[in-house]
Amino acid sequence: MKAYDGMYIDGAWRPAAGPDVIEVVGPADEQVIATVPAGTVEDVDAAVRAARAALPAWAATPPAERAARLAALRDQLHARRDEIAATVTAELGAPEKLSRTVHAGVPVAVAGSYAELASTYSFEEKIGNSAVYHEPVGVVAAITPWNYPLHQIVAKAAPALAAGCTIVVKPAENTPLVARIFAECVHEAGVPAGVFNLVTGLGAVAGQALAEHPDVDLLSFTGSTAVGRRIGAIAAGMVKRVALELGGKSANVILPSADLARAVNVGVANVMSNSGQTCSAWTRMLVHRDRYDEAVELAAAAAAKYGDRIGPLVSARQRDRVRGYIEKGVAEGARLVAGGPEAPRPQGWYVSPTVLADVTPDMTVAQEEIFGPVLCVLRYEDEDDALRIANGTVYGLAGAVWAGDEAEAAAFARRMETGQVDINGGRFNPLAPFGGYKQSGVGRELGVHGLTEYLQTKSLQF
């Protein structure tokens, strides 16, 4: 076990203000692998003050120079990708292959995309007799989740830095180790002191202090809808900008003309990836009644193949929560066709890949975010019924549509109340805007739309 000390504040690792620490526990073996400081209100205040002091100079830095620092950051992340992957595997429990390709790989691409955008985006424009300037919003507070611990930091820090903002990041207490590596990469990339700051700590202490700090101009949060509501209320009371990426209950709609086997297999893989701990996972599979039984058989067979291929959940609490949802689904009438609530291994916080059939739209498991390797299969009568079910939750983050013809799938997708839809297994695009409708959030991440979240607009009339 390694005991880490200090917070990254104003360009250096500084001792924490208090003596308390957070134990980081490995989900696969339930052993403490490290400790990090538990940040206090004083630590948060020091970080925000450093960010505020660094803001004028960084905001005035030419975009080309900001782009150069982001390119250097991208290169640092690439050089340390093996260490990053190993760290995510240890603290999150993600399988090594997933850690290398997704957890370590995607942040490199995202950082690179903002290095490019910082050098090409038009921060000034002419509209009639007005000169319009897109300026940094100011000091950003970023509170990030544990499920994609590095990607979520990069998805906030990279556009904020590209925009000319300064930032304080509070990572999730479950997965703070990769955040420390990121701070080291920022330092080695030559980002000026105070532009990026890192405070580890508990949400109820450090997160709350960061959200309430009067010198923070924008709150960017990814996590549960319940916490997002609280952060939104704090921001409203102080008239602060917010960017909220929250929960999801995404529908995977398989239209009758689709390649059923491919749609089901890809859909199951999507749900099982990262042990189901993905807010945009297609956790509701909607199948026409004439093909329903076949789809259930295919889903059960596909899920069974993931028994030894997925990692544990991040914590005992999360494992118990997911098991509770499985039990509630069965109690409400769902049919268990794969997996179940029983522990698949004697050690580690594992949950078996689970498929629930005969799920109806009113069931708890069809309405609430489970955040584990659990797929619900629902039956629909016709396209209007499928659309009603797909749009019938408080969420609207992501989704998928499958059809024999892309135009048919796209026409259906355009009627879905959700921020991002994959057509016939469309590939991930790090430049496409990501974010939700309804209670899935406010604002967008990634690409140029993610950059504009960190800008405010000024016009001069001549």
TrEMBL record:
InterPro entries: Ald_DH/histidinol_DH, Ald_DH_C, Ald_DH_CS_GLU, Ald_DH_N, Aldehyde_DH_dom. Gene3D superfamilies: Aldehyde Dehydrogenase, Chain A, domain 1, Aldehyde Dehydrogenase, Chain A, domain 2. Pfam families: Aldedh. Residues 13-459 form the Aldehyde dehydrogenase domain. PROSITE patterns: ALDEHYDE_DEHYDR_GLU. Keywords: Oxidoreductase. Coiled coil: none annotated. Belongs to the aldehyde dehydrogenase family. PANTHER family: ALDEHYDE DEHYDROGENASE (PTHR42804), ALDEHYDE DEHYDROGENASE-RELATED (PTHR42804:SF1). This is Aldehyde dehydrogenase family protein. It comes from Streptomyces labedae.
